[in-house]
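Table 4 source record.
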Amino acid sequence: PFAAYTVEKKLAKDPRRFGRGAIEGVAGPESANNAGAQTSFIPLLTLGIPPNAVMALMVGAMTIHGIVPGPQVMTRNPDLFWGMIASMWVGNLMLLIINLPLVGMWVRLLKVPYRLMFPAILMFCCIGIYSINSLPTDVMFIGLFGLVGYMLMKFGFEPAPMLLGFVLGKLMEENLRRALIISRGSLDTFIDRPISAGLLLVALVLLVLALLPSIRKGRDEVFTE
């Protein structure tokens, strides 16, 4: 969702509309969020690797029932596998049926004054973070990171890329070192497989698309001067 929002903001003709109800800033992250919910099952069911905490709970539940996550799930437990696939279709259909009649109610929530909405959001955030480890220090860290995020916004920084880097940076470094150890230091290991090369190419294209509006805007300003 963060990446989708950033890309939509970069590609928009008027980025100032974002944060004020721009439909692209709502539709893009929400589509990415819905896509991520279903695709998180791919590494779980094909490799047995949970990509997030929710999938880790799924691994625990499957293990309790004697099911080993991995590529053998499709052949040994076809009812479970195809049941999951069917549940995704049914779940999205139910969301469509439920949300269309209730869209008016969701819109009315936007009319709630911010002075009432903010304390409620803050309270639920504190309850959620405290329920994970039951540590008061975690709640204090919420206030600290909230202050840092407020300062970043005031100084014009984009908090989403920093948050993604903070979450994914360690994982990327560990897997980069692991890949280089396996390949004995050769960087060709990242492009000698079609899937790896294709994913890198897609990432490069997305990076170019994100930077292109800024480059074009800079050129237009130079030509104007």
